[in-house]
Amino acid sequence: MKYDPMCATCSKECKQPAAAKLVSCPQYKKANSNLEMFDMKGNVRKELAVRLKTAKKNKQPEEG
Length: 64
What we know:
With 64 residues, the protein is mainly alpha-helical. It has helices at 5-8, 46-59.
């Protein structure tokens, strides 16, 4: 599920869908940058996982 951009950067659990189009939120609390690496279920965010996989692939020594 995609969240409203404001909710995507918030540490609270009350995430609203992207269709909500929030203007402000009285409960908003900016998430710690370390928490931004994980989704609400505790899994590594897809974007980060792709970057880590690419970085790992690029670090492998060339065989030949």
